[in-house]
Design brief:
With 258 residues, the protein is an alpha/beta fold. Helices cover 48% and strands 12% of the residues. The longest helix has 18 residues, at 155-172.
Length: 258
């Protein structure tokens, strides 16, 4: 990964609602040598962003959740919102991210059994699509097997995540296993140790920061953007000011709203 050794500014998208401002973003990335990353591997990436990446000849990394590929298994946070309804579900998603992993899993299992709704299905990307994108220059990389919060997992759970995603990459001829983005950005001393033991060479955070001065391959900073981010705001984010102002405005919000 030559680009990474140069310590680039990295932006991160998640679900892509529509192409919205993406073409304008890509114009800027081309001029500034900015690396595009996308987490979770939602099918919307293939529909909306992949065609534009090809057109603009921009390199990108797509971090996929290997346990979902070729299935209709939904993202667990979407399933939670579906089962509890958007308002209560949305709050619950934040709450369970703080729980030990086994407790979150047991809670979801129990909800599925007790809520009287048809199981939620979500079309996920397929191996064929991943191979097509890899062929076209998108790096298909590792976002774990089931997207747990890594800092809430036991060592055995972490090892299992890496073992299963490694097997997935090897079996399908996909190359990006060693590039890993922490689900939700959550990391700890233990996660870093297990990641290294599992052969990960680059680990990406989700901290809304510009690259740190001393490049640490296991703590690579990334900025958060969406397809709807305006060009003005994008310039603001890329300048680094947004990540400095954001904690202050969050504090103010807390003070003003209790
Ligand atoms: Zn994610």
């Amino acid at each position: 990964m030559k680009e990474l050794e140069l310590n680039p500014t990295i932006v991160t998208y998640h679900k892509i609602d529509a192409q919205h401002k993406l073409a304008a973003h890509f114009n800027i990335y081309q001029q500034k040598n900015i690396l595009v990353t996308v987490d979770d591997g939602d099918v919307s990436f293939y529909q909306h962003m992949f065609p534009l990446l090809k057109q603009y000849k921009l390199p990108a990394i797509l971090f996929v959740i290997t346990g979902l590929i070729d299935t209709k298994i939904p993202f667990w946070w979407d399933e939670l919102e579906y089962l509890l309804g958007p308002e209560q579900g949305g709050k619950k998603v934040w709450e369970v991210k703080e729980w030990p992993n086994h407790k979150r899993l047991a809670y979801l299992e129990q909800l599925r059994a007790t809520v009287d709704k048809a199981p939620l299905e979500q079309q996920q990307l397929t191996t064929a699509q991943l191979l097509e994108m890899q062929e076209a220059g998108v790096t298909i990389a590792n976002h774990s097997h089931t997207h747990p919060m890594f800092d809430k997992c036991t060592e055995a759970e972490l090892q299992d995540e890496f073992m299963k995603s490694k097997q997935f990459f090897e079996e399908r001829g996909l190359k990006g296993y060693r590039l890993f983005a922490y689900p939700n950005g959550n990391h700890s001393t233990l996660t870093e140790k297990v990641a290294k033991e599992a052969g990960i060479e680059y680990a990406f955070l989700f901290d809304h920061k510009l690259p740190s001065k001393g490049f640490n391959p296991y703590r690579i900073s990334r900025l958060s953007v969406t397809d709807q981010t305006s060009v003005n705001k994008l310039h603001f984010i890329l300048s680094g000011w947004h990540s400095r102002v954001l904690p202050v405005s969050k504090k103010l919000y807390k003070v003003l709203n209790g």
